[in-house]
Design goal:
The structure is a single chain. With 83 residues, the chain is an all-alpha fold. Helices cover 70% and strands 0% of the residues.
């Protein structure tokens, strides 16, 4: 599908140079690749935010205290002298 996109002059020059470096005529493949990567990353960011929102409040204060106590006990038994 054809569409029109306005680019600043510096960005247009960079895009044109990237096309020359890749040896492609025009820069549609580069723009298509960039837009696809951007949209994929946006989807991943939304998934991460959703996972964080779903996990919020999953641990009670007692769970956190128990985990911190176990962490302290584990570190207290860790040998620091390696000689």
């Amino acid at each position: 599908m054809r569409t029109t996109v306005e680019l600043s002059d510096p960005l247009y020059r960079r895009l044109k140079a990237a096309a020359v470096d890749r040896g492609v005529r025009g820069f549609s493949p580069i723009v298509e690749e960039a837009v696809a990567e951007y949209l994929d990353a946006e989807g991943e960011r939304r998934d991460i935010v959703r996972a964080i929102e779903d996990a919020e409040g999953a641990w009670t204060e007692a769970d956190v205290a128990e985990w911190e106590d176990a962490r302290r006990r584990a570190w207290s038994g860790w040998k620091t002298d390696r000689s």
